[in-house]
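so my prof wants the structure for this chain in the tokens format not the other one, which i didnt know existed until like an hour ago. anyway here's the sequence
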Amino acid sequence: MKSKLTATLLCWFFGVWGAHKFYIGDKKKGWIYLILFFVCGISWIPTLIDFFKLLFMSEDEFQATIVQKPEE
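here's what i got, hopefully its the right format
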């Protein structure tokens, strides 16, 4: 079971490298964050957005939408 607190802390401290995306299992976006960081250094913008989304999201919403992604 993934923790919202852990994801939020990873986003705050290591988010520009996509650590929170790798933690929740979204490796594709994690690699995009890494590429953005090393190519042009702008990965802090989506990281800041992700941080506030995680911060204000309830634990139940986190588990339902982030950890157990709905079938597409």
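also thought this was worth mentioning. The mean pLDDT is 92.
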